[in-house]
Amino acid sequence: MQLSTAGYLTSVGTLLVLAIFFYFRHTAYARIQGLADRISPAAVILAGAAIRIAMVVTHDLVHNADGGDFERVALEMLDGQYLMPPGRPPAPSWQTAAMYALGGMHRLLPLLPQLAWDILHLWLVYRLGAYFFDQNTGKVAALLLALHPDHILNATEINTENGYFLLFYLGIFLLVYLENKTRASKWEYGLFALFAGLCWGLAHYFRTTTPLALFAWAALAVTDRSGTFRRSAPGLFAGFLIAISPLIAYNKTTYNIWSATSYQMGGWSVFLSTNPQYLGNWNKEDVVLFETRAAAESPPKDMHPAVFRDRLALQMARERWQQYPWHWVFSAVAFKPYCLWGDNGGGIWTERRFADQPAIRYATQAYFIVYHKWLCLLAALGLWRLLRQTDPMPPYLRFFLWLALITTAAHTFLEVRAMYHHLFFGFMVWLGAYAICSSRHNPHIPPEKE
Q1: Which domain holds residue 384?
Q2: Coil, helix or strand at residue 92
Q3: Nearest alpha-carbon partner for 214 in 428, 406, 429
């Protein structure tokens, strides 16, 4: 994979901007802290909402590949072909079909839920940041998210990320709210944890990351001494199982397998992850290769074709591992972590939206690149401050850190794309806001150690 001259110039320019920021970071921190002192949380959220509404209203309404597929599936659902779509997560299409059924075939309708969820994210990030740290840190976190170009773009496409983010963070909010409530009874813990588990179970219909979150929660329930995770674990797991039980029953009835996956068993993602040329990214060559092989082989009589395709993809992945072991090791260790965390999305959108306006296109792409990498730098500084403090890291931030490590490890065996970790937008802006706000006063670090 060769880097063009423009790529080199972009990389050098980004490093230069980040170096300048790092040198003048204390001045920048003071300016942002002053802004946070003056503005209200409502002003931050309304400003973020205004940006997203403007983007949706001026959107060209040409969906990306995933968004187009979700819309096609929604139309087929309305036509009565099926309720559970094959090969796609069902929730985005259910959402789109509901909007078309309620309001007619207006092209803007499917974006209204995406817009609403995007704005609600800002409120959740503010409230949780205020719970974890203080009001100003919560406001700065919401501001950092409000200006993130990838998060803004999510309001303009039918996608899985917005619904998942909303339900997952809503579950966290219920649990954090209960932890901050004085004199909560055991039944309140159980009820709130059950509702949080239901939120996570519904999120599973958007994306299938939740089992990794439950694994991280269970690990912390065993190792954490505060009891935060142990108290809520039974209700959280019960709520999740209740929410996904219809899915398990559907998979058993339709495919004759015990599976909690809403749209695939994972083989296709594993196969893509082994591509030595594209280093785990989606590509058309793998699609053609797989479809050609699948057409040439017939599934056993007692196996559903979808299950056969999944197992064939896993077999092809094993064959490729044996053929290119060191390519996989390189992508797993070097490329995939950067792609998941350090790379930004939006490149295709800017190419399409400003195809005839190169100056605007380059300026927009520069904003996408520099802003996300600036946030990565801020998050790294915030994490460093938290790890070196004398008091333990706030429990729920520790959960997000565990989950970040676990999902990064899991993606060494799975497909990756730029900013596939949309789930961690909140975690990153909390860390970035903490880096900014803790430079003035850090309640966890003694003044002489700052």
Answers
A1: 12-56+111-261+335-449
A2: helix
A3: 406
**Residue 268: phi, psi to the nearest 5?**
-65, -45
Q: Which of 40, 41, 49, 46 is nearest to 152 (CA)?
A: 49
Query: Long-range contacts: 93-100, Cβ < 8 Å, 24+?
Result: 94/205, 95/158, 95/163, 96/70, 96/71, 96/158, 100/74, 100/75
Residue 34 inside a domain? The answer is yes
* Residue whose C-alpha is closest to residue 435's, from 391, 385, 390: 385
Domain count, the chain: 1
Contact present, 171 and 199 (Cβ < 8 Å): yes
At 413, is the secondary structure helix, strand, or coil?
helix
CB–CB of 141/125 below 8 Å?
Answer: yes
Residue 34, token pair as written in the block: 């002053």
The answer to whether residue 97 sits within a structural domain is no
Buried b (16+ CB within 10 A) or exposed e, 202-233: bbbbbbbbbebbbebbeebbeebeeebbbbbb
Q: Is residue 282 part of a domain?
A: no
Alpha helices in 155-227 (DSSP H): 161-179, 186-203, 210-223
pTM over 0.70: yes
Q: Is residue 292 part of a domain?
A: no
pLDDT in tens, the chain (450 residues): 444 455 555 666 677 877 887 777 778 778 888 888 889 999 999 999 999 999 888 876 666 668 888 999 999 999 988 888 877 889 999 999 999 999 988 888 899 999 999 999 999 999 999 999 999 999 999 999 999 999 998 898 898 999 999 999 999 999 998 887 767 677 888 899 999 999 999 999 999 889 999 999 999 999 988 788 998 999 999 999 999 999 999 989 988 888 888 665 678 889 988 988 888 888 889 999 999 999 999 989 888 888 899 899 999 999 999 998 888 888 888 888 888 888 887 766 677 677 777 787 788 888 888 899 899 999 999 999 999 887 788 899 999 999 999 999 998 888 888 767 888 999 999 999 999 998 654 444 333 333
The CA-atom distances, in angstroms, between 268 and each of 88, 227, 264, 311 are 12, 39, 8, 9
Maximum CA extent, the chain? 72
Which ranges in 79-185 belong to alpha helices (H)? 90-103, 111-132, 135-146, 149-154, 161-179
